[in-house]
Write a structure and sequence with these properties.
Radius of gyration: 17 Å
Strand order of the largest sheet: 1-2
Helix content: 55-70%
Number of domains: 1
Number of helices: 11
Order of helices and strands: HHHEHHHHEHHHH
CATH class: Mainly Alpha
CATH superfamily: Rhomboid-like
Largest sheet: 2 strands, antiparallel
Structural class: mainly alpha
Length: 228
């Protein structure tokens, strides 16, 4: 299971990361480094909140009322575009996604402030839901956080590129490469065995593209403000 989780969400080489540098989206740090610790803690707290919400929804058996459902969304239940990302097929599916969220948080938390991560996360969620609604008419329902994870991974790597170019480049190439692989060859068979259902690879594509674009836009805005 750990090998599959690592291979699914980040290149194995990234587990060797020990130090974090200053991100291109973060302000100058004070000598005590308080803002670094604060930023890291807040970003990790945000991930923890998302993880707890996913667990609560699963334990409370709220998959049916919260999942992406084309029929209900067309009837006006637009919140399902977001909440469909927070419920899962079962506990194995949930644990796999929470492990991916934890790894991404540990590797890339300092890349952005919590509010910036929030923008990337929500944009990825909306990207997954809206993309499936508009471009996958044959899909009636969907659950899972994995599309958002790819958005967070690419977004975090883009945000951290200015500081850790080698690691960020590896992450960007890996993430984009894995999505391209899925589009050509389909989902990794082991992932489907673990989750207990079909992996919707287009959800990964929509989440990655929207999360990456959101982070890129944030980076450009911050650079513009710093240059003024």
């Amino acid at each position: 299971m750990p090998t599959i989780i690592t291979a699914t969400f980040v290149p194995p080489v990234t587990v060797l990361i020990k130090l974090y540098g200053k991100s291109s989206l973060q302000p100058e740090l004070n000598p005590s480094g308080g803002q670094t610790r604060s930023g890291l803690h807040r970003a990790c707290w945000l991930s923890l909140i998302v993880g707890i919400a996913c667990i609560v929804f699963q334990v409370a058996d709220m998959v049916e009322p919260l999942r992406f459902s084309r029929e209900q969304i067309n009837d006006g239940q637009w919140w399902r575009l977001l909440t469909g990302n927070l419920v899962h097929l079962g506990y194995a599916h949930l644990l796999l996604n929470l492990a991916g969220l934890a790894v991404i948080s540990l590797l890339l938390a300092p890349a952005m402030h919590a509010w910036q991560w929030s923008i990337v996360a929500v944009t990825s969620m909306l990207g997954v839901g809206t993309g499936l609604l508009l471009f996958d008419p044959q899909l009636n329902w969907y659950v899972g956080l994995s599309g958002v994870l790819y958005g967070l991974l690419l977004g975090g790597a883009i945000a951290d590129f200015r500081n850790q170019r080698i690691i960020a480049t590896i992450l960007i190439i890996y993430t984009v490469g894995k999505i391209v692989w899925e589009q050509i060859y389909g989902a990794v068979e082991s992932s489907e065995k673990i989750t207990g259902g079909n992996v919707i690879v287009n959800a990964h594509l929509y989440g990655m593209v929207c999360g990456g674009l959101a982070a890129l836009l944030l980076m450009l805005i911050c650079r513009q403000r710093q240059s003024d």
